[in-house]
Amino acid sequence: MIKYLRPLIIIGISTAIAAVLYMLGQISPDAIQEKDPMDVNVQILTPIDYQIKIKSTGTTTPITQTVLTSEVGGEVIYRSKKFSEGSSVISGEILAKIDDTDLQLQYKNALLQLASAEVQFAVQQAEAEIAQEAWEQVGEGIPQELTTKKPQLKQAKAALEVAKAQVQSAEKKLNKTEITAPYTGRIQNINIDLGSTIIPGQPVGSMYTSNEIEVTLSVKDSDLQFLDIPMDGRKLNSDQKSIVIIKSLYKGEMQEWAGNLERVDGVIDPMTRMIKLIANFKNNFIEETKPILPIGLFVEAEINGKQLENIFMIPNSALTPNDELLFLNQDDALEIRKVSVLTKMKNHILVKEGMKAGERVVVSKLSIATNGMLVNPRYQ
To answer: Are residues 216 and 240 located together in one domain of the fold?
Structure first.
């Protein structure tokens, strides 16, 4: 029985499989749906005028710093109370005095030598005149110099000049027993005290100017394009002295001082490509409502550069690693364009050329971007 049914079973199964395959062949596959264009943030370009600000840091230093020395030696018999570290002094103020007893003696001895030389010169001058008159009465021709005592007169005159110079030297040393402030400023340190003995040339202290302060600021050589600074060593004109604002935490508050760019160090560091600018700041002698600028303070500086006109400010996110920007054409398709960046700031870049007002630039970061790729713009 099974022997006769087996062909029928095989035929039935085959028919069923054929029917299923036929039915599957009648089902159309779903159409592949195209992805929607990617959403991107877009900025419409608008030209602006922008004041360049160049950032830097530095430390305040005195414009003049002097080591005070004594030109004469001796015992210190007076030291001003203001000749102390940190004290303010004015130009010509007496800081210390040295015992002048020995120098007074030297000065008087020099006067004595001068008086003796004057007498000797007068005697030789008189004798030379007498000898000249005697020769004119009895002599003939040109007399020898010894006959008219010219060498003796010359020697007496030279001795007189030496005596005068010795008096001037002794007087100068006598006037140097007072150590005075060469300018108005502040005392930095002192090396003497009342009763101590010093020798000529010994440092007795140091001081610095307090009315003018300098700050050396290092900037990139590429930043020089935004500063009107001659590099040939000329002194900056008043219209070239850019305003410099420095800030620092001082006396528990963020303080601010304004100064001017004074000069430039014309040497570029070959390793860092940095160049040094020197800014000058005025200080009041007496602190009133605003703190004076102290020495040794670390400051952050902002230098006013050129005023740029008709430039474009674009977020940093718009710039690709290859210094390219992504623009949108009228069909919302990408156009990759190389641009020349004037400068890069913390959050923005400045571009002058390679674009025009009204164009649309993508400010989103895209992992993939090709020319002609369609996107969906979202305006900021």
So the answer is: yes
